[in-house]
Hints:
CATH architecture of the largest domain: 7 Propeller
Strand order of the largest sheet: 1-26-25-24-23
Helix content: under 10%
Shape: globular
CATH class of the largest domain: Mainly Beta
Radius of gyration: 20 Å
CATH superfamily of the largest domain: YVTN repeat-like/Quinoprotein amine dehydrogenase
Structural class: mainly beta
Oligomer: single chain
Number of domains: 2
Strand content: over 45%
CATH topology of the largest domain: Methylamine Dehydrogenase, Chain H
Amino acid sequence: MKKLVFIMITGVLAASAAHADSLNCRLVGHCSTPGNAEGVELVYTRGIILVADGDSGLRVVSYDSAVEIGHCNTPGEAHAVAVYPTRTNLAFVADDTCGLLVISIADPAHPAILGRCHTPGTALAVAIGPYGYAYVADMDGGLRVISAADSTNPVEVGFCGTPDWTCGVAVKAGFAYMADEDSGLRVISIQNPANPVEVGHCRTANLAYGVCTDDYVYVADDLGGLRVISAADSSDPLELGSCSTPGNAYAVSANGHHAFVADYGSGLRVISTSDSSHPVEVGYYDTPGYACGIYAAGTRAYIADYNYGLEIIDYNAAGVEESRKPQASSCKRAATIVRGVLRLGVDSKQYSAYRAVPSDGGRCGQLLDVNGRRVAALHAGVNDVSGLAPGVYFVRQASGGERTASPVRKVVIQH
């Protein structure tokens, strides 16, 4: 495991040379963990944060108080954790040489292992796709596809080898995107989970460790910083731009036009990707540990900070710009002051899940900041906005499945 050892050594050197500093970011919460925090997942509908804490297993932290409320020891070393959006009572943990674990978090105070699926390599990361499939980055074992239809007996149904060590995985729209160290980004079709097949790849400047998808595919590329890649043509993914980071870019989570990078040795780096060909750093927070896992929601980043546990950081962009084309006259009156929860209508004339193709004539929505940048996707019903910084935001409605521009209304988020 010489490559993983290398990043730990270089991360320590970078951290020793760095000094505590920040730009447009502030620490809003912290929770120490007994092990080394490596991965993190927010389950806001349950009010909990899950931390993959190395040899201390899975830790469950209260969203409101940032205090640990439960834990589950795992037989291996918990590197990453993921939750299926519609089955939030289950957590999937990449547990090193012990493979994939399925853990019940129905009772957050007493999480318990339900099932396990052995993998031939070292399970480093996991992403959850449709229909209950888990996709595991299994280092020298490549991509492993595991069905958790029976949570007590998860079984492997397919696999796809990769040229190098697979360290990160993200899933979207029938494709798995693999961070494959020296071999960069690998694009694998998972339209048939039993027969995943590589269809394209994009070499990166250094070692691809982490990956996520939003408008683009974002790769945390070690000394190569952040790479922004278009996968519009899955057979020929193309790098559009890059942004260097002072440490080792190890993990990434994107939200709208911002990529949040866990930079091993220099903490959180916030990078604007509004111009995909020229991404620029717009904020940072030098964490006390070695940032190696991250989950971004709204303007808040949840960081697995290795030996310092969980760090919760808000990004607050500087500057306010008024809209040049006010549209208040085209909007129906609705609640202006929002505290924690933004409620949207559920009938056919209101919003449905953003990005989804509406099946009932529903509409899509976005939440924008004062600079017009998207900070959250909105869906019908209850939207948790408690993780956003207080201030002025705008709800933009799109017409039908086309998401064309339409009425915008202002809301003020308070805590």
